[in-house]
Design a protein that fits this description.
It is a single chain. This protein is mainly alpha-helical. It contains eight helices and no strands. Helix 5 runs antiparallel to helix 6 and helix 6 packs across helix 7. The radius of gyration is 24 Å and the shape is elongated.
Length: about 130
């Protein structure tokens, strides 16, 4: 058996597996597309970790998304068949939302927020 023949068999086996009825059924199901479309939430949260100023973070919404992701992480493992893609999506979202929550708490209740709320003497003159 030549190397080209072995590569051809491996390629054929790969395509047979990828385009099998089971694989195509999975790729055309909501079991696949639901989590894929849901990945927009954690991706936006990850981008916001670096780009959004902490004074624009909504504490109640971040708390809701933390609970939401915990619930759906559990749900993704409770259903049959288990949906590991959905679990991964909500796991990533949980980490990103916890990061946002940390930034919110640090800004709202920590020194960073107090410094931002202090008004400089120049700003007081302009306002009067």
């Amino acid at each position: 058996m030549s190397a080209a023949s072995g590569a051809q068999k491996a390629t054929s086996k790969f395509f047979d597996r990828v385009f099998s009825k089971e694989s195509l059924r999975y790729l055309c199901s909501t079991h696949f597309w639901g989590p894929v479309s849901n990945f927009g939430i954690p991706l936006a949260a990850i981008v916001d970790l670096q780009n959004k100023p902490p004074d624009m973070i909504s504490g109640p919404m971040t708390g809701s998304l933390i609970v939401y992701s915990l619930v759906f992480m559990r749900y993704s493992l409770a259903i049959k068949p288990q949906n590991y893609l959905l679990f991964g999506c909500h796991f990533v979202n949980e980490i990103a939302q916890l990061g946002q929550g940390y930034r919110y708490v640090r800004y709202t209740y920590g020194d960073e927020g107090k410094r931002a709320q202090e008004v400089s003497p120049d700003q007081k003159k302009v306002g009067n």
